Amino acid sequence: MAQQFQQLGVQPWLAKQCSYMALHTPTPIQQRCIPAVLAGRHVVGGAATGSGKTAAFALPILQTLAADTYGVYALVLTPSRELAYQIIDQFIAFGAPLQVRTMLAIGGVATETQIDALKARPHIVAATPGRLCHLLRTFGPEVKGAFGHLRYLVLDEADRLTEGDIQRDVWALLRLLPPATKSRQVLLFTATLHTRLTSFAPVAAADASTAEGEVSVLAELGITDPTTLEVFVVREAIQEQGGMTTPGTARAPLDAEATNTHEVGNREAANASTSSSASASVFHLPETLQQHYLFIPNMVKLPYLVAALQAQGKSQSTIVYVNSCLRAELVRLTLQLLGFPVCSLDSLLTQQHRLDNVASFKLGISRILVCTDIAARGLDIPMVGLVLHYDVPKHADTYVHRVGRTARAGREGHSVAFVSEYDVSLVQRIEKKTKTTLGRWRSPAAKETAILPLLDEVSSAKVQAKQQVEEQFGARVRTNKTHAAVKRDARARAQTAAMAQAHERRERREQERHRRGAKQRETHEEEREEGRSKAAASPPPEKPVAAKRVRSPAAPSASKKSKTTATDAEASSSKLAGSATRKKVGKIAPGR
């Protein structure tokens, strides 16, 4: 079994570790990405949730780390703390023979502890961008020096890390890290592959206060040569939403179809079509996933949720997704008062409480997990049989990541969306973008006869839960809202100041342009005036006398010449005759 990993270039000791962890056959995304990473390429990998993307970058990183074990060798950025913990666990398991040193740079942990850990030069660092950015800004040189030997930069859930507020932290972090070297590889992995992750065309910057206005995600990450990038998309019932090329060649014969395995430099036509829309995506949905909806009034969601959970039985794990932290705690407390083994996961909880709840759910102590979208990405909980959308997500990619918690690694899974009168347009948008159709959920738990007996009991529990939520989390919610408002105001002021500065710079440039133009016109006018003055002071130049042309007489023609000759002859004859007469007269006169 380990030979299949060795055929990809994985060394025997690492392939043996895979077999110890029950990884006997590489998944399609692993078969495509591992050889490319080992070959020193930048890689973008897109595959369905639960397809082994973490091992696709962890295995080649550990193999090259074995030859050079100094300093922070790999930095893995994630959008959530729980995912960072999970990634570190996998690096520790795969890298046990190396005794790999790891470190977490996430919120909820004392900064002094994290600084000490960075000073120890760990091999692998998993971090959320905000916390690591804070450490680099606050403790500058001593933290920055730890990343001087950085060989790999990994963005797990890259689509989330390159959008919204978190993108600002990522860009700021990249500017604080040492400059990228030619040997540094960038690896991007996600289940929803946006074209901004595969195209070098610039897109609108998330931060309106930035001077750039538009940025290229790949260029910001240090990928400037298209010939060094390879994009792999494993299609397992993939639904395409604009922007990916037709199937290409695969590196190995696989059941799943691979697209775009060529270098970006060989797919210029594809880039031309994808760069037109930075939001186009490829959505990856498992074939074993069954998707349903239940249309119910908004006011009776809780009774329907209780009925659905009762119908699930005690052996199956269920994740319930909501859209706010406060609602997560309200639903969790209501279910807890009704006797369900339930825990929650949201940002109102302390970090230790969040870790304990995740462990409780993974171990089966708590059969139900009520959470926000903080648990929608990356968490590997293999035995989740049902995902319930208590609140319909606002974006299709969030929906894809939510349902990705079930139907993992070829197992069957179910997803049910509670659709109220306010959610119809959201569901239609999700169906359109994922190119799927949600079927109506026809479970006995969805019938009114199962709901009516629960109304009073659920309403009473909900009232008690509201009181407890206010007591436990009310102050923190108000504090968070205040901090969020302050942050929004500060960001608005920063954007206003940046816009004012940009306007001022434009005004200065315009004024400078007008000043230069006026000065040039003034200089030209002075030169013309000086020329006119000189012209008036100097005498007018004498006009040169033109030499008359003497035309030579034309040669007479033959007829004229003959006439002239005759006339001359006659004149000569007359002169001779006159001369002779005078002589005769002179001779006679003396005789008289």
Task: Put the structure in a nutshell.
The protein has helices spanning 2-6, 12-20, 28-38, 53-65, 81-94, 111-119, 129-144, 158-161, 164-176, 217-220, 268-274, 301-312, 325-337, 351-362, 396-403, 424-434, 448-451, 455-537, 558-588, and strands at 42-46, 74-77, 102-105, 124-127, 152-156, 185-190, 192-194, 203-204, 214-215, 229-235, 238-241, 257-259, 281-284, 289-295, 317-321, 342-345, 368-371, 384-389, 413-419, 439-440. It has 592 residues and is an alpha/beta fold. The chain folds into two domains: 2-284, P-loop containing nucleotide triphosphate hydrolases (Rossmann fold, 3-Layer(aba) Sandwich), CATH 3.40.50.300; 289-483, P-loop containing nucleotide triphosphate hydrolases (Rossmann fold, 3-Layer(aba) Sandwich).
Identify the notable features of this structure and list them briefly.
single chain; 592 residues; alpha/beta; Rossmann fold; 8-stranded mixed β-sheet; 7-stranded parallel β-sheet; 20 strands; 15% strand; disordered C terminus
How much of the residues is beta strand, in percent?
5-15%
User: Any idea of the CATH class of the largest domain?
Assistant: Alpha Beta
How large is the radius of gyration?
A: 44 Å
CATH architecture of the largest domain: 3-Layer(aba) Sandwich
SSE map:
Layout: H1 2-6, H2 12-20, H3 28-38, E1 42-46, H4 53-65, E2 74-77, H5 81-94, E3 102-105, H6 111-119, E4 124-127, H7 129-144, E5 152-156, H8 158-161, H9 164-176, E6 185-190, E7 192-194, E8 203-204, E9 214-215, H10 217-220, E10 229-235, E11 238-241, E12 257-259, H11 268-274, E13 281-284, E14 289-295, H12 301-312, E15 317-321, H13 325-337, E16 342-345, H14 351-362, E17 368-371, E18 384-389, H15 396-403, E19 413-419, H16 424-434, E20 439-440, H17 448-451, H18 455-537, H19 558-588
Parallel strand pairs: 1-6, 1-10, 2-4, 2-5, 3-4, 5-6, 14-19, 14-20, 15-17, 15-18, 16-17, 18-19
Antiparallel strand pairs: 7-13, 8-9, 10-12, 11-13
Helix pairs in contact: 3-4, 4-5, 6-7, 7-9, 13-18
